[in-house]
Design a protein that fits this description.
It is a single chain. This protein has about 70 residues and is an alpha+beta fold. About 15% of the residues lie in helices and about 20% in strands. It has one helix at about 55-65; strands spanning about 15, 30, 40-45, 50-55. Strands 1-2-3-4 form a 4-stranded antiparallel sheet.
Length: about 70
Amino acid sequence: MRSSSHPVDLTRAQWRKSTYSNGNGGACVEVARNIPGIVAVRDSKNPSGPALVLSPGAWTAFLARVRAGDVTP
């Protein structure tokens, strides 16, 4: 994860809603993977709020743990 002392410009991020999100405006997560070297994750209910910024390796490891049932999506 990148340090907050080195902000990442997410103005060109192309956000995609999680397939686990429901259509009722509930718990929605959006992911942007179009920025080289990072994966950004945010709450779709607060698009101007903070985003988690992960390395592609950390994102892949997180998804593997979700798929294995170690983490609840």
